[in-house]
Known about the structure:
Shape: globular
Number of domains: 7
Distance between the termini: 58 Å
Largest sheet: 5 strands, antiparallel
Amino acid sequence: MVVELGVQDDVYTVKIGETIYTVDYAFGGLGWKQRYLTKIDNSMYILPIQWNLATQEWVPYHLKDWYDTSGAAKLIAKKQAWDRRCAGCHTTGNMPVKLEDEFVAQFIEDSIGCESCHGPGQEHVSTLDKTKIVNPRNIEDFDRQNEVCGQCHLRGTSSAGTYGYPYDETADVNFRPGDDLTTMFVDGGGYWPDGTSKKHHQQWLDWKQSKHNDNPFHRVGCIDCHDMHGTSLPSDVKIDPTSNELCLSCHGEHGFEDETAIMRHTNHPVDPVGTGASRCTECHMPFTAKSAIAYDIRSHTFRFLSPEHGIEYEMPDSCTGCHDGVKAVAMTQPQAVVEFGTSFCTSCHSETTEYAEWITSKHAESLPGLQSSDHAQDFCLRCHSVDYRLSPEDAKPTLETARASLTCAVCHSHEAEHEDYLLLPVAEACVECHTMGEAAPGSTPHHAQIEVIKGIGGVGVPDMEAGHSKVNPEICVTCHMYREEVEGEEAETVALEGGHTFEPSMDACLKCHGDPQSIKEQVQTEISALLDGLEVALESYPDQESEAYLNAKFNRDVVVSEGSLGVHNYPYAKALLTYAYSAIGESLPTAVVAETGEFILPLEKGLNMISLPLKPETPYTARSFAEELNATAVITIDQEQGKFVGFTPEHAGDGFAIEGGRGYIVNLREAMEVTFSGSMWTNAPSIKATPDVTTSAWAFIVSGSVYDDQRRAAEGDRYLVTVKNLQTEAVAIDEVGSAGDGQFSAVWVDMSRQSVVAVGDEIQVTVADVTTGKIVSGPMTHQIGVDDIQLAYTKVALQLGDIIPEKTLLAQNYPNPFNPETWIPYQLAESADNVTIRIFDAKGQLVRTFHLGYKDAGMYLNRGRAVYWNGRNEAGEAVANGVYFYQLQAGSFVQTKKMVLLK
């Protein structure tokens, strides 16, 4: 069976056997499929080809109508006429007739026109009487109202079975809005065994079974969710279906007012990385029916179809649409049985940073590492294998049969009630394994992290809980899973430390410590030296069975197995080792720390990272600190905002306070020695103040001001300044207000001391309105020069509203839908007199006029410049729900757009 496509005399053709048929009509589309009609005698017939839009391919359509069982071409039967089978729902005003053996459709329009839903309109047009036309929303009988949509969104035959669409063959009339549809058709739908639609255009039949239809308090119909006059959204829904906003406009009042409530309901996070998780439609409107391909049409019963349901009725379910590759049978089992490894999780989360980070972590290698050890035991699997941890006691794997390292399921479960679906509270999650348990002198402690942090479990010293434990309620994750809260592309960056690498991040330390790298080096150097000396002493100790030896060795092993070399709890680690030395009669190596009233600090030309070693009598500000050091830039981290902030002498004011225990990046024109005097800080540890110096430009400030123009900016507007290095694509941001001098300071810092800018780099500066996201200035570019690098900053100036658009246009109002207020943005390519914005209701009646007068060319996009409408008419009365049209007139330019008031 061969179907040949061709063109003759600029007309598309289809060759079937030796006969060439012309393509006289095409129908369908809108994302699914398109079919083609040819006219034979007085009727139209669907040709045996179909174009699938989703897959962009030709597929056969009902070949048996055009070919016999041997594959030879035949003439299609008269009863297969499109006029008989389909015309009623693809035309307007169809009145079919039968001419001998032919079926002929007689219609007013060859598409779905106004009268399909509003009924005959001639009398309405001639009299202008609105009572002479049907408005489906005003049909009092709720069933009759929804049957306006149901006349086509069903599958069946006419009352006597002659036609493939609703038609009253007794009265010889077609369906008109307001009629009782049930008297005009016989249900012939294709259903799954549970009654859910299996074939397309059966949405009304599904809806009839739903709670939306039979809700005793408020019935929800088609036009509550769909706009029959069309939207830019799929299926003409009123609000973007990829969010939950439309469903929550009703269900938000019934326990689903926020994401937390939704997650409790679904046991899934809300839409992680765009997967659709916890999206109402994914569970309550799964794809069950076929239009062009299986399955591309959603169920409208709004029932959740469980995997058990899918198995029982051998049909699609709500889960396997997302959990692609996981069979419904497996979905009915406990999560641990489904998959101990990561493939279950990565069916949704494969492109997230968490998985990419975890795969580099020691957790990912915990089982191979154990299996390669010559002294491993099966019980070690408890902290090295997820399948051991989650298997029943009578089914635990062995070292030989265990197959998965510490994967997602060790810490997380969709059934868990704790934050981030953790099986345990966040402060307890790590402690399950990172503990030495019941270890005592004479045994070897493993992973004593929690004991050292809590300052417990050692021999011969009192308990000494670490400050890290006291100030960090989440303990481990604060430093080992630290991640900056960023958005956009940066949020998708795979971390080299912190996050799910579980490697400690020095950026986390900067929240509390001014120079964490120096502190770490000093502490670890001292503890390492004490351990080295103790190991030598223990090796030479004569009685290695004595209590003294066992106690000393145990304390040493606690510190070694804990692994941080004093970083977690320096006082306790040092106390354990001090006792160990004394227990075996050895002297502790000494370290002399001088405490004077002066500290001389050598600083190099360029960037230095320092801490203020002594508390001065007169507190420093960023300005006085810069003046003291002759610095061109001072940078620190704002702990509340969680980002770096910068100060240059050109800034107004004194900038931020300089405090003890915090780190500051300073850029100097020349090398120098500076003498600090004062007393010891009381709010910070005594730390090494010697600067960490490098010649690379690893810190840089882009500063300036957004000049305020009262004609262009309103009080209270806020602007986001975004600075992008076009060479490295690194981004820095700052937020400023419209009032005052509008100063901004966007800062780049790389704590690994890699250059963030270089001579010749181009930076791009853009200013956007915080509320709307609309650009109000820029983008402008600036090339980094030698002077900029030497100063560690560059200064730029921007003007709000300085963009002149290429064309005049009226933009979409925001928010939309709205209640009760909205803003109408627009832009003018040329200055214009008598600029006007008018608002009309759906009937074309003028509701409100805004006479804006003369307007300069420019962007009128943010809330300070756009036209504000409070949802009231000229008389100050609140207007009703519905569709409204707004129109911009600027000179000869006129443009109209639509908006929706939804209370």
